[in-house]
Design goal:
Layout: E1 3-7, E2 15-17, E3 32-36, H1 43-52, E4 91-93, H2 95-101, E5 107-110, H3 120-133, E6 138-142, H4 146-158, E7 161-167, H5 173-181, E8 185-189, H6 193-206, E9 210-211, H7 217-233, E10 241-245, H8 250-265, E11 273-279, H9 284-290, H10 316-326, E12 329-333, H11 335-347, H12 358-368, E13 378-382, H13 390-397, E14 402-406, E15 413-417, H14 433-439
Parallel strand pairs: 5-13, 6-7, 6-9, 7-8, 10-11, 10-13, 11-12
Antiparallel strand pairs: 1-2, 1-3, 4-5, 14-15
Helix pairs in contact: 3-4, 3-7, 4-5, 7-8, 8-10, 11-12
């Protein structure tokens, strides 16, 4: 199997060996794809192989990523694979979310049930495996939380040193605690995520440290399998639309690549629309599309959904490509819409971190504007676990959640109140049976 890297820029298309330590094209600076000369045979037979592996106890087959290894065949040595049985995440029908958003039915693919609680594990098993293939000793990333947690865990399993750059005071403690516990060297950078990303890119370009942000094309190969697993779970019935949060845009990029490859290889016969939802004040991709700009329009990102608090996403061109391939689009939702949608997801007994809730919030908005038909078959991807940011949840239900809002024409920052529309606050009660029975309506 021939494996190689290729620049995605149409006027370049430079090809590099797969073992080249490059995250962007050395000729034009464009993003790179991992590509293969696939020779797979009958797709229906390979689907049966994927299904049969669910009965196997082979370590590769227990992984919801490497079970589909024919579609990510970059690792020639199975002993190098670093796995924590990632993937294997459920897809739920969510009737309350469907009713809230205006759809007849809605399905949620919950990546927050990965080993470290986010979709990053699907990518990190591939990225850290490639780091071992490259004989790297140190891996690094900039992170708003989930990437750092995942990289630190997988680096620990691979006996690699993990170096994490986080924006100071802009990371949820649920995520930071993971990085610390897994032994990552955590550096708090004065500035936002984009400043941390700038630093880690410079350091990994000048040293042997291996970069594991989503600009790394091998990480996106692992994240492709989210789509593969979702389709396998649905008996290869292709949905009309897949909705995903938009932060650094690696996930949406990998989804587009997976869908295009599966279509070209004959595994599926239509391509679901990739719909990306961003927070209203962390919306660089949306602004770029609206203004039809050939270059990304960065923003100073502000959102309580810290996992997508990114103003200069590195994978934006691949995300645009994903939408072009699948006739998809990008939209934005407010902090209020995110908070309320998150509460509704909880009412379905599922739960997620704030960034994940942009999907249901975005679906509700797009149904109202008739851009999504209520009969559509839609899968929304929840990217992170409820316990990643418990303070957000508690504050919402206790009616004390505020959005920090800065205004250019004012010299002050003020806090905008987020209404707890679906509050479920704890009730203080004396230890008296009569009072408790009264509250129970008994």
């Amino acid at each position: 199997m021939n494996v190689y890297l290729k620049c995605i820029e149409a006027n370049c298309q430079k090809v590099l060996p797969s073992n080249t330590k490059s995250y962007v094209c050395p000729q034009c600076g464009g993003l790179l794809d991992v590509l293969y000369d696939f020779q797979l045979g009958d797709p229906e037979e390979i689907k049966r192989v994927f299904q049969q592996r669910r009965l196997s106890n082979d370590p590769l087959d227990l992984s919801g990523v490497w079970r589909y290894r024919e579609l990510i065949p970059f690792c020639p040595d199975p002993t190098k694979v670093v796995s924590m049985q990632e993937g294997n995440t459920p897809i739920y029908e969510a009737p309350r979310c469907a009713d809230y958003s205006g759809l007849k039915r809605l399905y949620l693919k919950h990546q927050g049930l990965n080993p470290t609680g986010s979709f990053k594990d699907n990518g990190m098993t591939a990225g850290v495996t490639q780091a071992l293939l490259m004989s790297s000793k140190i891996v690094a990333c900039a992170s708003t939380g989930n990437t750092s947690a995942s990289m630190a865990a997988y680096a620990a399993r691979a006996n690699l040193k993990a170096v994490i750059f986080i924006p100071d005071q802009q990371i949820a403690f649920g995520k930071l605690s993971q990085s610390l516990d897994y032994g990552g060297l955590t550096l708090q950078i004065q500035g936002d995520f984009d400043e941390a990303m700038k630093m880690v890119k410079e350091i990994t370009e000048e040293t042997d440290v291996y970069l594991l942000n989503s600009i790394n094309p091998f990480r996106l190969e692992g994240q492709k399998t989210i789509i593969v697993e979702m389709l396998a779970q649905r008996g290869w019935q292709v949905p009309d639309r897949v909705v995903v949060p938009g932060g650094n845009l690696g996930n949406s990029s990998s989804f587009g690549k997976a869908i295009k490859e599966l279509y070209d290889l004959g595994f599926i016969h239509k391509m679901p629309m990739v719909t990306i939802i961003q927070a209203a004040r962390a919306n660089p991709l949306y602004r770029t599309l609206i203004y039809q700009s050939p270059r990304l329009i960065p923003v100073e990102a502000h959102t309580l959904a810290t996992a997508i608090k990114i103003g200069n996403p590195v994978s934006w061109k691949k995300a645009v490509r994903a939408m072009d391939w699948t006739r998809g689009w990008c939209d934005v939702v407010s902090e209020q819409e995110i908070a309320d949608a998150k509460a509704i997801i909880g009412r379905d007994g599922i739960g997620c971190e704030p960034a994940s809730a942009t999907t249901v919030a975005g679906i509700k908005k797009l149904v109202q504007t008739k851009e999504i038909d209520r009969d559509e078959d839609v899968v929304a991807v929840l990217t992170g676990n409820l316990l990643k940011d418990p303070d957000y949840t508690i504050n919402y239900h206790q009616d004390s959640l505020f959005e920090m809002a800065s205004y250019k024409n004012e010299l002050i920052e003020r806090k905008d109140k987020i209404q707890s529309t679906y509050s479920n606050a704890p009730i203080k009660v004396e230890p008296k049976k009569s009072q408790i029975l009264k509250l129970l309506g008994l």
